[in-house]
Specification:
With 376 residues, the protein is of the alpha/beta class. It is built from eleven helices and 13 strands. The chain is globular, with a radius of gyration of 21 Å. 4'-deoxy-4'-aminopyridoxal-5'-phosphate binds next to α3.
């Protein structure tokens, strides 16, 4: 069956040839363990790792030594949140957050280490800033923002939030799981202290890699302890970054694939990617608007659009689409607070998400099936 893949918010697919080649080349030509030996294959691995670090750092305006490879966005967020929080701190997060943010915070609260509250991202950017200003108190030290929701196309004004954090001396953590590789992000210009994202979504790499880019203000404690390739005789993790936060062997082939993804994005241009996704989401939203009984949840001009039908459940719609080879995500999207914010907590949504590989024909195919369901 000819598949139509519209689930890029879950993971990108198909992986472009350059990405698969980079992973294969790393396995063949740099197959040693980086930083763990003096032989040619280990040296080649160290060189490749450093160049991937430089590639990622320069793409996001970070510093190579403070660009940490993790196992995914979830791991990056856990390290940032747990590693930056000090006992008694108050954390502010938006009400579109993913569980990768919410659950680490809830665990810290359950351990009596911090308190938290959310600011409201359901209105305009101005209203969001007002809510943030009203909620920030004397104990607030960390502000977290979901750069783009994983349920709809709402994008948070990270530059304004970053400026506010700088003015107040707060640390700013950005969850860029849905925006990395889709929207421009700059650590210094957006005032970000910890940028967290996966390699397998917008950056188009293989799964198993996340990025955590830290500003020079962020003093982040490790979450994982183990071999780091340096200072093996010390009882604790080394002070130096990135080794301090990179315990254990890194997945170099996947890291090389992420660096290749970044090169591909540079070649294509972030603007061109954004325009392509906006064109597809506009086509999709127009088509949905012409049908009688669907509604769009939240914003729809971007890479992620969620819909609901008056009578047919998201799960039933997902089954019909899957039978026709159309891949979307349905139900709940690991973001319970966001579902409440968007009024979709009853059954979740049908989430359609776009990527570079999609075409107008893909949109036509999904709209045809959705129309049949609507008219049934
Ligand atoms: N934050 C958001 C907004 C996400 O959409 C996701 C992935 N669904 C994550 C964090 C976690 O990413 P990963 O599963 O790749 O660790």
């Amino acid at each position: 069956m000819n598949l139509v893949y519209l689930d890029h918010a879950a993971t990108s697919w198909p992986k472009p040839r350059e990405i698969l080649d980079a992973a294969r080349d790393a396995s063949v030509h740099a197959g040693g363990n980086p930083g763990r030996g003096a032989h040619p294959l280990s040296d080649a691995a160290s060189g490749l790792l450093y160049s991937a670090r430089e590639e990622a750092a320069s793409f996001f305006g970070g510093i190579p030594e403070r660009t940490v490879f993790t196992s995914g966005a979830t791991c990056s967020l856990n390290i940032a949140i747990r590693g930056l929080v000090r006992p008694g701190d108050h954390i502010l997060f938006d009400n579109l957050v993913h569980n990768a943010v919410l659950r680490p915070i809830r665990a810290l609260e359950a351990a009596g280490l911090c308190t938290s509250d959310f600011y409201d991202a359901s209105g305009s950017d101005g209203e969001l800033m007002e809510s943030l200003r009203a909620k920030a108190g004397p104990r607030t030290r960390l502000v977290i923002a979901t750069h783009q929701s994983n349920i709809c196309s709402r994008i948070l004004p990270i530059r304004e939030i970053g400026r506010f954090c700088r003015e107040r001396g707060l640390l700013f953590v950005v969850d860029a799981a849905q925006s990395g590789g889709h929207l421009p992000i700059s650590l210094p210009e957006d005032g970000i202290d910890a940028l967290c994202l996966p390699g397998h979504k917008g950056l188009m790499g293989l799964p198993g890699v996340g990025l955590l880019l830290l500003s020079d203000r962020a003093r982040c404690d490790p979450l994982l302890f183990g071999g780091a390739g340096i200072r093996s005789e010390d009882p604790g993790m080394p002070e130096e970054l990135p080794e301090r936060l990179e315990a254990g062997t890194l997945p170099l082939p996947a890291i090389a694939s992420v660096a290749a993804g970044i090169r591909l994005i540079r070649k294509t241009g972030l603007d061109a990617i954004r325009r392509h996704e906006e064109k597809l989401s506009a086509l999709f939203a127009e088509g949905i608007g012409r049908m009688g009984r669907y509604r769009i949840a939240g914003e729809s001009r971007g890479g992620v659009v969620s819909i609901l039908h008056e009578t047919v459940s998201p799960a039933a719609i997902g089954t019909c689409l899957a039978e026709q080879g159309i891949c979307v995500r349905t139900g709940y999207h690991c973001a319970p607070l966001a579902h409440r914010t968007l009024g979709t907590e009853k059954q979740g949504t049908v989430r359609v998400s776009f990527g570079l590989s999609n075409t107008a024909q893909d949109i036509e195919r999904i709209l045809n099936v959705l129309n049949e369901i609507d008219e049934f």
